[in-house]
Design brief:
This is Phage tail protein. InterPro entries: Tail_protein_I, Unchr_phage_tail-like. The protein folds into 6 domains: about 200 residues, Sandwich (Jelly Rolls); about 120 residues, Neuraminidase (6 Propeller), CATH 2.120.10.30; about 140 residues; about 160 residues, no CATH class; about 140 residues, no CATH class; about 40 residues, no CATH class. By secondary structure, it is of the alpha+beta class. Strand 27 and strand 28 form a beta hairpin. It starts with 6 loop residues before the first strand and ends in a 34-residue tail after the last helix.
C-alpha cells in the first residue's frame, strides 16, 4: 500500500505466470540465475533449436561397421583407421595421434652376399581386418575381428603383442560395449552377446546330476546375467549404462525411439519419436533425418552428479542433438531434447567417443564427447546460437478490487525489452466476471521505462539471468470496474526474447481532482476525465516521493537497505568495507556491527576480520559473526599466532633462582661481573644479560665525554653529585634501564617494600641503574633473573603476531591470482583493525613447516600435514596420489608418477 492507500495485484512467481495467467504455447519459463541471489525468474518466448540445413548436394555420411572409439582410464583415445587394419591412439598428454598396433617396421639392412649373419626377417604379415573395439574397466583393449576368427586382446598395463581369443562362428560385430564387471558385450544383428571378466564368450550353464549326495542339497549359485539378450531387429545402436543396463536406439515405423533395457529384458521406452521433439523445437517445423547407427552417452564431469545425456547425430553429419535422460519412475524413462546447437565440422562418419563419468581431459575441460573429423578427433561443443519464438500472447488472471466502480490506476511491469523486441498492453474492466468476458480489449498507451526505476520505495532494480531488467509503466486510461483483466503481447527478432519478471496493477486511483480541486472542474465529463488523467501523472511522482519518505526506516535496516546505501549506513557505525566485500557479507557485518566493533583490536576480532577477508563471499558468515571465539577451532581455518609464545624456553641445564647464588657463582667460576666471558654466561644462564652491557656502555661513554665549559664539573669526592649527573644525562638513551625501573615499580609498588626485601636504601625507583654485578640478596637476584630471562628475552617478539592462511581444499584447482587477491584483502583487514603499536605478518600454512618454527599440536592443526588432508586421504586408500606438477602442487602434496600406470590390485588376469 502506498501513501495514498492504493494497493496492487501482482504476478511474481512461476506459478503466477504459468498457472494464474494464461500464456499461450509460445511462452516458456526461465529460472533465476543462481549467480544473482536477488534475481527473479522470467517468462520468455519459447527457445527454439537452431537446425543447420545442409545443401541438397551434400552427401549423407553414415557410420560404417568400424565406427566409434574408446577412452581408457587415463584419457587416451583408441580408434580403428579407415580400413580397419590398424589401431591408432590419441595420447591425452601430447595430443598427438600415433600408431598403436601394428607398429611400423624399420627397414632391414641388406647383408652382403655370402656374409655370415642372421637372416633378414620376413616381411610383416598383413594384419587382420578389425570390426570394433572397446577398452574394458580392467584396462584391456579388446578388438573384434571376423577375419581373425575371434578377439584380439591388448594388455594396456603390461604391453606386448595382442593375445588372440578364438571365437568360432562369431557373429558380425557392430559394436563392443564395456560392462561393469570387466567383461564385454558384443552387439550384432539385434542381439547382445556377453563375455565374462576373463574376456571369453559366455556359455550357458548346464546342471549335471551328481551320483553321490551325502549331505543336504547345495545352495544354488548366484544368478548371473544371461549369455545373450535379444533386443530385436529394430535395435540399431546400443550404449552401456551402469547397473547392467543398456541404452538402445530403435527404428520404428514413425521414427526413432530411445529405451533402457536390462539383462532381464525389462525395458522402458521413450514416449514419442525423437524426430517429433526436434520438429516441435525448430522454427521451420520441417522433418529431420537422424542417423540410425550412431549413439553416444555424455556423462557429467562431476562424478557425484546423477543423470546422463544421450547424443544422436543428424544423418547429414552436420549437427548433433542432445537428449537429457531422466527416470521419472522405476522403469519409466523420459528423454527431453535440449535446445543446444552442437555443430560437427568435417565429420568423417567415425561415430562418437564418450568420456567416463568424472573423467576430464585437461586439453578440453568442457567437452564430454568427441567425433572424428578432419583427420583428428574433435570435441563435441555447444555453440551459442540463440533462437526463440517471434510472438507470444499472455492473458492475465481476473483481478477483483472489491471496490464497485473502481478506477484502476496504473501498471508497472519489471521486464527486459531487448533491441528489436516490443511489449504492448491491453485491458478490460467490468463490474461482474460475466460482463468482463463480453468486454472488448482496449489498447493502453505504450509501456515506457520509469526514469527513477521501480515505483516501490527503496527497491533495487532486479537483475535477470539474461541482462538488465527495467520497470516499464503505463497509466490506465479507462479501466473502470470492480474486475480487471490484462493482456500482454510480446514480439522479438527471433534471436532475443523479452522477459517478464513481475507485474503490478495498482488500484484504486487517488484522484487529485476529487480531493483538492473545486467542483467546477468536474462539471464537464470529458474535461474532467482528461484533467483526472493529467493530474494522475503528477500524483504518481509525488506519491513515489511520499512513499520513500514514509519508508525511510528501511534505510536503517541492513536487511532492507538498498545496496548503494550500505556504505553510507556503515559510516554511521564507524565501519569501513573492503572493496572486495560483497553485498551479502556487508549486510551481515552491519547486522552484527555492535559485537564486531566491541571486539575490534582483540585476538578474536582480528581473527574474525582476517577470516571474513579470506573466505569467499559465497560462504555463510553468520556463525562466525555470532561466535568469533570459536574460529580457532575451525578445521583448516585461519590461525593467529602471538609471536611471544614462539620464544624458545631456557635449556634444562640453565640456572634457576631456586638453586641459589652459590651454584651460579660456581658455574661462573666465581666471577660476579655480568660483563664476564659471553660463552660462560650463555652456558650458565642460558642467555646474555643485555641490560648490564647497555649500562656499561653508557658509563664508558659518559666518562669520556667532554663537558661544556659553562657547566661546572662535579667534585671528585662527591660521588652522589656525579651519579645524579650521570643518571640525568643518560636516562633518555637507556631503554633497558627504564624497563628495569618500571618492572621494579610494578613488582614492589613502593620503594620501602623493595628496600625491605633487598636490604638497600634507594630513595626512588628512578635512581636504580641496571646492575653490573650479580645482586647480593636472594630477592634482588630473583628480580634480576626474571627481568633478564623473561622480560628482556620477550622484547623481540613482543607486540608482534602472525596470521596463518590455509590453502583451499581443492589444491588441484588453485588460482594463484585469486590467492594473491585474497591475501591482499587479509593484509588490508589486519592493518585496519590491529592496535597501532603492534606489527603483523601474513604467512601461508605450508611456509611454517620448518625446523624451529612449527609447533606440534598447534600449527600442525592448520593442515594436518599436506598428505593428511581429508580430500587426499581417499586417494591414499586407492594408492593413486595426485602426481606432482611443476608450479601447481606443493612438495609433499603428491608423488612422482610411475613410468607406467600400475594395474589395480583386483585386476583379472588372462593367463598369459
Amino acid at each position: 500500500m502506498d501513501a495514498n492507500g492504493s494497493r496492487y495485484h501482482a504476478l511474481v512467481t512461476r506459478g503466477d505466470w504459468t498457472e494464474a495467467a494464461q500464456p499461450d504455447e509460445h511462452w516458456a519459463w526461465r529460472p533465476a540465475d543462481p549467480a544473482h541471489p536477488a534475481a527473479l525468474g522470467q517468462l520468455v518466448l519459447k527457445p527454439l533449436l537452431f537446425e543447420f540445413k545442409a545443401s541438397s548436394a551434400a552427401p549423407l555420411p553414415e557410420p560404417g561397421a568400424r565406427a566409434g572409439a574408446s577412452f581408457d582410464a587415463y584419457g587416451n583415445l583408441y580408434a580403428l583407421d579407415a580400413d580397419g587394419r590398424s589401431i591408432r591412439v590419441w595420447s591425452s598428454g601430447s595430443g598427438t595421434i600415433t600408431d598403436f598396433w601394428p607398429l611400423p617396421q624399420a627397414p632391414a639392412a641388406e647383408a652382403e652376399a655370402g656374409a655370415f649373419g642372421p637372416c633378414a626377417p620376413a616381411g610383416p604379415a598383413t594384419p587382420p581386418r578389425m570390426d570394433a573395439l572397446v577398452v574394458t574397466t580392467g584396462h584391456y583393449l579388446v578388438a573384434a575381428s571376423r577375419e581373425a576368427g575371434g578377439l584380439l586382446i591388448f594388455d594396456l598395463h603390461g604391453g606386448g603383442p595382442p593375445l588372440p581369443q578364438p571365437w568360432p562362428h562369431m557373429p558380425a560385430p557392430e559394436a563392443l560395449l564395456a560392462l561393469d564387471d570387466g567383461g564385454v558385450a558384443l552387439f550384432a544383428a539385434g542381439v547382445l552377446h556377453r563375455l565374462g571378466p576373463d574376456l571369453r564368450p559366455c556359455l550357458p550353464r548346464t546342471a549335471s546330476p551328481t551320483a553321490f549326495s551325502p549331505g543336504p542339497a547345495p545352495l544354488p549359485p548366484p544368478a548371473e546375467p544371461p549369455c545373450q539378450l535379444v533386443l530385436g531387429a529394430d535395435a540399431t545402436a546400443v550404449a552401456a549404462l551402469p547397473a547392467s543396463r543398456f541404452l538402445v536406439l530403435r527404428v520404428k515405423m514413425d521414427g526413432l525411439y530411445l529405451s533402457v533395457i536390462d539383462w532381464a529384458g525389462t525395458e522402458g521406452v521413450s514416449v514419442g519419436p525423437l524426430e517429433e521433439q526436434i520438429e516441435q523445437a525448430t522454427a521451420d517445423q520441417e522433418p529431420t533425418l537422424l542417423s540410425t547407427r550412431t549413439l553416444a552417452i555424455e556423462w557429467p564431469a562431476d562424478a557425484a552428479t546423477e543423470g546422463f545425456d544421450a547424443v544422436v547425430l543428424a544423418a547429414s553429419g552436420d549437427q548433433a542433438f542432445r537428449f537429457a535422460a531422466s527416470e521419472t519412475a522405476p522403469g519409466t524413462w523420459t528423454f527431453e531434447l535440449q535446445r543446444d546447437f552442437i555443430p560437427l565440422r568435417r565429420y568423417e562418419a567415425g561415430g562418437l567417443a564418450s568420456l567416463a563419468r568424472g573423467q576430464v581431459l585437461h586439453r578440453f575441460p568442457s567437452a564430454r564427447a568427441f567425433y572424428a573429423g578432419a583427420g583428428r578427433w574433435l570435441p563435441l561443443l555447444t555453440l551459442p546460437r540463440p533462437r526463440c519464438e517471434r510472438e507470444g500472447v499472455l492473458v492475465g488472471p481476473v483481478w477483483d478490487s472489491a471496490v464497485p466502480g473502481c478506477v484502476w490506476h496504473r501498471v508497472a511491469l519489471d521486464a527486459r525489452r531487448p533491441p528489436g523486441g516490443a511489449l504492448s498492453l491491453q485491458s478490460r474492466a467490468a463490474e461482474t466476471p460475466e460482463g468482463l468476458a463480453l468486454q472488448p480489449w482496449r489498447a493502453e498507451p505504450e509501456l515506457l521505462p520509469h526514469p527513477a526505476g521501480s515505483e516501490l520505495p527503496w527497491r533495487d532494480a532486479a537483475h535477470g539471468s539474461c541482462g538488465e531488467v527495467q520497470t516499464l509503466t503505463c497509466l490506465l486510461q479507462a479501466a473502470t470496474g470492480r474486475y480487471l483483466q490484462l493482456r500482454i503481447q510480446a514480439s522479438g527478432d527471433g534471436q532475443q526474447s523479452p522477459g517478464l519478471a513481475t507485474l503490478r496493477a495498482w488500484y484504486p486511483r487517488f484522484s487529485y481532482l476529487q480531493h483538492y480541486l473545486p467542483a467546477v472542474y468536474r462539471a464537464d465529463a470529458a474535461g474532467s476525465a482528461f484533467t483526472e488523467r493529467f493530474l494522475a501523472l503528477f500524483e504518481g511522482e509525488l506519491t513515489r516521493w511520499e512513499d520513500r519518505i514514509a519508508a525511510a526506516q528501511l534505510l536503517l535496516d541492513a536487511r532492507t537497505a538498498p545496496q548503494q546505501t550500505l556504505q553510507w549506513l556503515a559510516g554511521w557505525l564507524a565501519m569501513e568495507f573492503d572493496g572486495s566485500t560483497g553485498p551479502a557479507r556487508r549486510r551481515a557485518l552491519l547486522r552484527h556491527a555492535a559485537s564486531v566493533q566491541a571486539r575490534r583490536g582483540t585476538v578474536p576480532g582480528l581473527l574474525l576480520a582476517a577470516t571474513l577477508a579470506w573466505e569467499p563471499d559465497e560462504v555463510d558468515a553468520e556463525a562466525w559473526l555470532a561466535a568469533p571465539q570459536n574460529l580457532p577451532e575451525r578445521l583448516h581455518g585461519l590461525r593467529l599466532q602471538e609471536l611471544f609464545g614462539l620464544a624458545p624456553p631456557l635449556s634444562g641445564s640453565a640456572w634457576r633462582p631456586a638453586q641459589g647464588r652459590a651454584v651460579l657463582l660456581a658455574a661462573l667460576n666465581g666471577e660476579e661481573s655480568l660483563l664476564a666471558d659471553a660463552a660462560t654466561l650463555q652456558k650458565a644462564l642460558g642467555f646474555l644479560p643485555r641490560a648490564a652491557r647497555e649500562e656499561a656502555a653508557l658509563m664508558a661513554s659518559w666518562r669520556l665525554a667532554e663537558l661544556p665549559e659553562d657547566e661546572p664539573r662535579p667534585a671528585g669526592g662527591d660521588e652522589a653529585l656525579a651519579f645524579d649527573a650521570y643518571l640525568a644525562a643518560t636516562q633518555a638513551c637507556a631503554p633497558l634501564r627504564q624497563r628495569w625501573q618500571d618492572y621494579l615499580a610494578r613488582r614492589w609498588r613502593g620503594i620501602q617494600a623493595l628496600n625491605a626485601a633487598w636490604g638497600t636504601g634507594w630513595r626512588g625507583f628512578d635512581r636504580i641503574p641496571s646492575p653490573l654485578y650479580l645482586p647480593a640478596g636472594s630477592a634482588a637476584l630473583a628480580d634480576w633473573w626474571r627481568f633478564e630471562a623473561q622480560v628482556v628475552r620477550g622484547l623481540g617478539p613482543a607486540h608482534r603476531f602472525r596470521v596463518v592462511l590455509p590453502l583451499p581444499g581443492d589444491t588441484a584447482a588453485l588460482d594463484f591470482d585469486e590467492l594473491a587477491r585474497r591475501r591482499a584483502a587479509v593484509e588490508r583487514a589486519v592493518e585496519r583493525d590491529k592496535p597501532a603499536h603492534t606489527v603483523a605478518e601474513i604467512r601461508f600454512g605450508f611456509e611454517l613447516f620448518r625446523v624451529g618454527e612449527a609447533r606440534l599440536g598447534h600449527d600442525t592443526r592448520l593442515e594436518h600435514g599436506l598428505l593428511r588432508r581429508p580430500e587426499l586421504a581417499a586417494l591414499a586408500t586407492l594408492s593413486i596420489w595426485p602426481p606432482l606438477v611443476l608450479g601447481e602442487r606443493d612438495l609433499g602434496g603428491g608423488q612422482l608418477t610411475h613410468p607406467r600406470p600400475l594395474p589395480p590390485p583386483d585386476r583379472v588376469g588372462l593367463d598369459r
